[in-house]
Amino acid sequence: MDLDAIINNQLSERQRVHQYRRRPVVRRIDPTHVEIDGHRLVQFASNDYLGLSFDQEVIAAAQEAMNAHGLGSGAAGLLGGHSPIHASAELALARWKGTQGSVLLPSGYQANLAAVRTLTAIGQSAGKNGIQFLVDKLVHASLIDAVQGMGAPMRIFPHNHLEKLKRRLADAPAGQLQVVVTESIFSMDGDAADLRGLAELKQQYPFVLLLDEAHASGVYGPGGSGYAAELGLREIVDISVVTFSKGLGCIGGAICGSDAFCQGVVNWGRPYIYSTSIPPAIAAGLEKGIELIGQNPHWQEQLRQRSRQLRQGLAGRHQVPGLEDCPIVPVILEDEQQAMEVARLMREKGYWVSAVRPPTVPRGSSRLRMTVCARHTEKQVGELIQGLKQVIA
Ligand SMILES: Cc1ncc(COP(=O)(O)O)c(C=O)c1O
After folding, report:
1. What is the pLDDT of residue 95?
2. Cα(63)–Cα(281) distance, rounded to whole angstroms?
3. Is the CB–ligand 1 distance for residue 309 below 6 Å?
4. N or C: fewer beta carbons within 10 Å in the chain?
5. What is the mean pLDDT of residues 109-122?
6. Whose CA is nearest to atom 16 of ligand 1?
7. 140 is annotated as an active-site residue
8. Is the minimum distance from the CB of 136 to ligand 1 under 6 angstroms?
9. Helical axes 141-150 vs 108-126, angle rounded to 10°
10. Residue 300 near ligand 1, beta carbon < 6 Å
11. Three-class SS of residue 379?
């Protein structure tokens, strides 16, 4: 059996249905510009919402830690890879999120895996009916992979459909631990979980809330501490997942929760236990990022203002009801082919925007996904709107 021939067959099929993926080589120049094939483009495709990956103070903090402690951490957290820099960053994260503790992981993907793995291990030993995950249909692949990979009972509820969720909670067998899994800001639509509705539901039916704050961290809430904090609903969240790869401009993730849950992660969260801890430079960089976000609330204001400008400028074409001031702005297009073509034409006009197709988004909802950065100017956003209108027309 020729493995490559099998793969090539499958890849041809992907090409036929316009779902073939390839990685362009993109050189980032600054938070709002990239260079591709020798062309300088205005960037509207990065999750570095505050431009922190280029911030000189963040870079200096990371460099200092790297010079003092080396490039890699050298071991998993349980075997010597948990340095004072890691411990300090975990404290800063917990303070930021208002939780008792936090645990750093090499990626947001792994943070979700470790959170679900820990919950499953705990839930399965807690009672005879074990655990059930109730998952919003549009959550990130890492959460779906995590729950599916554990083989734990899972029921998907339609996006933000709290009536359905309520029925599932009402039908659950007595003594079974219910875990509701959702995202505060949804990565592809730029809309929000109905956290107020979840707060009410939680009063009627007890459940554990696992909230992925990947796209809200740095963007919403006091000091960028997240969307639950923005709504004053921190206390309804039992486990909060933060990714550093977006608003914090680096890489990695964290699980924030009670001391007990964090100890649970260290004992049962295999993606934590069996992975080398993040480089000290990253831990130092993200701690500096949190500090700077707190000191510079105008970054958040600027980001949300520019996001509003883009969303309002594209009103009518934008068919996903999202948050007005969310930096994720999708424009739904006819199909995969059109999404690719519009992205290509935008590139010709000097813009780098992403075309997102199934299976990343549901069939029939191929889109351009544009993301705003606090460092975009009003002029850059205005010109993007004009350019896109011309291309779509
Ligand atoms: C909602 C959400 N959760 C988790 C992740 C994974 O984060 P990371 O890229 O840090 O692994 C992503 C991003 O890719 C995401 O959008």
Report:
1. 98
2. 6
3. no
4. N
5. 97
6. 187
7. yes
8. no
9. 30
10. no
11. helix
